[in-house]
Write a structure and sequence with these properties.
heterodimer, A: mainly beta, Methylamine Dehydrogenase, Chain H, five-stranded antiparallel beta sheet, four-stranded antiparallel beta sheet, B: three-stranded mixed beta sheet, three-stranded antiparallel beta sheet, 6 strands, elongated, nucleus (chain B), transport (chain B), structural constituent of nuclear pore (chain B), mRNA transport (chain B), membrane (chain B)
Chain lengths: 396, 674
């Protein structure tokens, strides 16, 4: 009984703590890491094993010394008496980073590419046991003006190739195992390129600060884009882009006004649908890699949204789960000549048959959610409030 | 401003003042810049760095000048920072987590019934404290695990500061925020003491886990400590070990056990009234007294001490100084056994006397003691004032004052400066955050909740955030735009536009000035575009120029640039008549700057030379009048002969082409009519 009292004392203290975390199973775990987080990325998992991701990388910005750090959320061996604390992310290793971490991408399980505000693109090597992060290669001043360096804003990998873009409006192509730069498109953009994604092996898509999407084909020798798409008359900067994992012509972008656009790049100049998603800059948009009916967006307004598009039949299952969902109407422009047998849910124009549901994934928040990554059932995001949130039971 | 409460302590600035010169300084928010002036010292070796403006701050800094070799003025500017905590990575968590709680607190609506509000405020207060506790735990762990001695002691210092903060906060929570009434007041004070005197638990564990607890040398200390904290059940538990060991005196132990068990504890949720409780408590007290009088425990001095403790005998309690540790523990224990139904207004009398009795007549109380005493006296302003002086950061006072202000406890007090105490302290804290290279974002929300001066502070500070990347600029702009700070928006966009221009990124520069709606700068950049065109014969940044849209109307020159580029596009697409019409309108509507008319007319040449007639008769006349208007204008005096030759050749060529076109157009138009 004596023991019980002691235990009881301790628990009141813990209860005290948990009031602030205030979490049930649907809420993500928060961890404050003493640096504003610009990027979070799951380390890829091997496809053969049916496992959940356990390791993620985080990059910081606006700090005196910025860092790339590797965190683990799985079992840490040291199992406490109370299971909850085990789930908190643990720092495995980290490395100093020159300049703000503008972007992070895993090239493969053991290599991590970072984009820096100093204009450098860096490959870090991560030991298989994740206990050390070392510098493998740096392309100094991959982006720059005649005298000053220019921030590199984004990188994208399709092993072994990687592409970086920057405020200098250049698109640079590298091969991970070659020290020389493979190709530079010098004046790719007159404004800042904010994000880039691979469409096909030789094609990348960039978005810029005057609201344009540009498609680049590296097979072509000319330095002009294969195609330019934009919202006519609108010059709202686009900050992020992601392509549908299975249907390469479907692309989602997010803009400064928080607008989520779904584009069919085959269909010319107008986006297929426009959705008012956030009230401020949308920093990242990601299709779920294995279940692309789900989409995730995060924004400067401090929210992280989970979007699900459903066709009428399985609508009810969704409602039964009792989410606090809000239904957003869907600007439906039926596409003439859409004759694909497999019509993506994102492009199925009939709004009566299709609905888009959005769920808030974070408890109330004030500071910007700068980055998110989603893999299998796990989601990780990082904020300017210096917190990492990990959600390990996504309903996807 | 009131008189200075404390003598300021000198801060030595390494390597400053070697040159026998006066030091100059400049206050910043959080930091102080110190430099050597050209004024020589005249026999003074101590200079007090305090001026009129310096008095407004609580940071008193005395700068010591050291004598040293004489030489030319030192080129260094020293940055003196008072608040080191802001740089601690662990305390950053405190700042970030409490920011969230602060923002949540501001959202508690005015119209919620005050009864519900109180519980909300208490839970906010608990949240703040749990953040402090979490921070303390982490600091403690780091202090233990670090190898670096100085770092360990630094962590140790921070832990002790946080401990004090939490202690004060917790007491304020009990007395002010929860405002516990008689009866529950003592229960809460007991909890407060238990939480902050937790070494009892460690010792109890140590004793109980030893081979023979009853013989452990700390055994009786543990029993008495538990009783002093009013933890009767646990005390009985430990006492039973001894009882089982001594069957001969089991009846005595049994007696003590009954006394401990029967001690009435007030139950604030129960039906019992305070008077009923008081009656029961007095009966119990008399029972204890009887035990003492009939010498029941005379055979065991420990038990006798215990019963004296139960009777609240002051001398016996004071003998337990080491177990009590602090005067406020003594106070609470004393109240527990003498005045369990203490009312809040009576607290201060017992607090003062307990402190005097415990510390003795000659000892001078520490700042912490004074602060706690002020709290027991319900003198909130003194608590806040003393905390501001004693603690090295604004975090605590700003957040506590804000919370107390929400509880409507601070309304009577006005400052001679600024708006009110709450706003003053929150502004100080937020300004400190703003000096940090990374935490400045948190400060924005604090400024937002300072109704009087918050906006001015934010306006002044936000412009000074260094903008390393466009992404950061976008974030700062978002802050400004959300608050309709158009002046700051313009200034930030201009900085970005200028930077882009310096790097020869005309497209980016133009985008930024369009965003700022800065017509003058847009004109300047348009000029650069046109200049580049004249030099190169082709436009750069077509992706931008072709998509200007309505933004083109920002400035005349930009409109011209956009339209002129449109002319080139039409021409390139072989839409000659549209191109011709546009070109002509650029001149007749006076959109084109005069200096470029010759270029425009030259652009018309190939259209005039087409096989097909493109310019109509009327249009040709208009072109001719443009050309003549251009030539009749005053010629620049400094043009060389060669230039003039080229110009006149061009004019001649144009005239010829125009005349030929006119002829063709007359013929063509005449032909169609017939």
């Amino acid at each position: 009984m004596w023991r019980e009292t002691l235990l009881h004392e301790k628990q009141t203290e813990l209860n005290n703590r948990s009031t602030r975390a205030h979490r049930d199973s649907m809420d993500p775990i928060a961890k404050y890491i003493s640096q504003k987080i610009s990027k979070t990325r799951w380390r890829p998992i091997s496809a053969a094993l049916l496992q959940q991701p356990e390791v993620f990388a985080a990059g910081s910005w606006d700090n005196e010394n910025n860092r790339v750090s590797i965190w683990s959320v799985g079992d840490h061996g040291a199992s406490n008496t109370d299971g909850e604390f085990d789930e908190e992310p643990q720092l495995l290793c980290d490395s100093l980073h020159d300049g703000d971490v503008m972007d992070l991408q895993f090239l493969d399980q053991e290599r991590l590419v970072s984009a820096s505000s100093s204009g450098a693109v860096t490959i870090f090597k991560l030991q298989p046991d994740c206990q050390a992060l070392s510098l493998a290669h740096v392309w100094d001043r991959a982006h720059g003006y005649s005298c000053d360096p220019a921030p590199c804003t984004a990188v994208v990998c399709r092993s072994p190739e990687l592409v970086s873009v920057g405020e200098d409006g250049r698109v640079v192509l590298y091969k991970a195992d070659q020290t020389e730069v493979v190709r530079v498109i010098e004046h790719a953009d007159s404004s800042t390129i904010h994000a880039v994604t691979f469409l096909r092996t030789t094609e990348v898509l960039t978005v810029n600060s005057i609201g344009q999407l540009k498609m680049w084909d590296f097979r072509q020798q000319s330095d002009s884009p294969a195609q330019i798409l934009s919202l006519t008359g609108d010059r709202v900067p686009l900050h992020c882009v992601d392509k549908h994992p299975n249907q390469q012509h479907i692309v989602a972008t997010g803009g400064q006004d928080g607008m989520l656009c779904i584009w069919d790049v085959r269909q010319g100049n107008t986006p297929f649908s426009l959705i008012e998603a956030h009230s401020a800059e949308m920093w990242e948009v990601h299709f779920h890699p294995s279940n692309p009916n789900h989409l995730f967006t995060c924004s400067e307004d401090g929210s992280l949204l989970h979007w699900e598009t459903t066709s009428g039949s399985d609508m009810s299952t969704l409602l039964q789960r009792g989410w606090n969902s809000r239904v957003v109407s869907h600007s439906a422009v039926p596409l003439p000549g859409e004759d694909d047998s497999v019509v993506s849910a994102w492009l199925a124009g009939d709004s009566s048959r299709n609905r888009l549901e959005a769920t808030h994934m974070l408890p109330s928040q004030t500071l910007s959610v700068n980055s998110l990554d989603v893999l299998e059932q796990c989601l990780v995001c990082g904020t300017d409030g210096e917190a990492v949130y990990v959600h390990r039971q996504l309903p996807v | 401003m009131e008189e200075v409460d404390e003598e300021p302590s000198p801060t030595l600035i390494p390597s400053a003042g070697f040159h026998q010169r006066h030091l100059g300084f400049e206050w910043g928010p959080g930091d102080l810049l110190v430099y050597e002036t050209n004024y020589r010292l005249q026999g003074i070796d101590l200079l007090e760095g305090n001026t009129e403006e310096g008095r407004g701050h609580e940071a008193h800094l005395v700068l010591c000048l050291c004598s040293g070799p004489r030489s030319a003025g030192s080129p260094f500017v020293h940055i003196v920072r008072r608040d080191e905590d802001i740089c601690s990575p662990i305390l950053r968590k405190l700042f970030n987590e409490s920011h969230l709680i602060f923002v949540g607190l501001q959202k508690i609506r005015e119209d919620v019934p005050s009864k519900n509000k109180k519980s909300q405020f208490v839970s906010v207060s608990k949240n703040y404290r749990s953040v402090i506790r979490a921070c303390m735990e982490e600091l403690q762990q780091n202090a233990v695990s670090t190898q670096d001695g100085s770092l360990a002691s630094q962590y140790g210092d921070q832990v002790s500061i946080l401990l004090a903060i939490e202690l004060i906060w917790n007491l304020c929570e009990v007395l002010f925020i929860d405002a516990a009434p008689a009866g529950s007041l003592l229960l809460q004070l007991l909890d407060w003491v238990r939480l902050h005197k937790s070494d009892v638990d460690t010792r109890a564990r140590e004793v109980l886990q030893s081979e023979n607890p009853a013989l452990h040398r700390s055994y009786w200390d543990v029993v008495i400590s538990l009783v002093l904290q009013g933890r009767m059940d646990e005390a009985r538990q430990v006492l039973s070990k001894q009882a089982s060991l001594r069957p001969e005196s089991s009846s005595v132990f049994k007696r003590m056990d009954v006394l401990l068990q029967s001690m009435p504890i007030f139950n604030p949720t129960g039906a019992q009234t305070l008077t009923e409780f008081d009656v029961r408590w007095r009966q119990w007290h008399e029972e204890c007294d009887r035990c003492l009088q009939d010498n029941t425990f005379a055979g065991n001095r420990h038990l006798e001490t215990l019963v004296k403790v139960l009777l609240g005998d002051e001398d016996t309690l004071l003998e337990q100084k080491e177990l009590l540790g602090t005067w406020y523990h003594f106070l609470v224990t004393r109240l527990l056994f003498t005045q369990p139904t203490i009312k809040p207004p009576d607290l201060h009398y017992y607090a003062q006397s307990s402190m005097n009795m415990f510390l003795g007549p000659r000892a001078s109380p520490e700042p912490l003691d004074i602060i706690l005493l002020s709290a027991f006296e319900f003198d909130l302003h003194q608590v806040i004032k003393d905390c501001s002086i004693a603690l090295n950061n604004w975090w605590f006072v700003a957040h506590l004052t804000d919370l107390l202000d929400h509880c409507k406890l601070l309304q009577s007090h006005n400052l001679h400066f600024g708006s009110n105490l709450r706003e003053f302290l929150v502004l100080e804290y937020a300004s400190g955050l703003f000096t940090h290279h990374s935490l400045w974002q948190l400060a924005v929300d604090y400024f937002d909740h300072c109704p009087e001066f918050g906006r001015v502070y934010l306006e002044l500070q936000i412009e000074r955030v260094p903008l390393d990347t466009e992404r950061k600029a976008v974030k700062v702009l978002r802050i400004c735009e959300d608050r309709q700070m158009s002046e700051q928006v313009r200034s930030i966009c201009k900085i970005m536009a200028k930077r882009a221009l310096r790097n020869n990124r005309l497209g980016s520069a133009l985008s930024w000035s369009i965003r700022a709606k800065d017509a003058a700068f847009a004109t300047l950049i348009s000029e650069r575009f046109l200049q580049d065109y004249c030099n190169r014969g082709s436009f750069t940044d077509l992706d931008l120029l072709d998509n200007l849209g309505p933004a083109m109307l920002l400035s005349d020159r930009l409109t011209f640039l956009g339209k002129y580029r449109e002319f080139h596009r039409l021409y390139g697409e072989n839409r000659f008549s549209e191109a011709a019409r546009l070109l002509l309108s650029l001149m007749t509507a006076r959109i084109a700057p005069r200096g470029l008319w010759m270029t425009l007319l030259t652009d018309a040449l190939p259209l005039l030379e087409q096989k097909e007639v493109i310019f109509s008769v009327d249009q040709t006349y208009e072109l001719m009048s443009c050309l003549e208007e251009l030539n009749s204008g005053t010629k620049a005096s400094n043009t060389t002969d060669q230039d003039e030759d080229i110009e006149s050749t061009k004019t001649e060529l144009l005239r010829l082409a125009l005349a030929r076109n006119l002829a063709m157009a007359i013929v063509k138009e005449g032909t169609i009519e017939t």
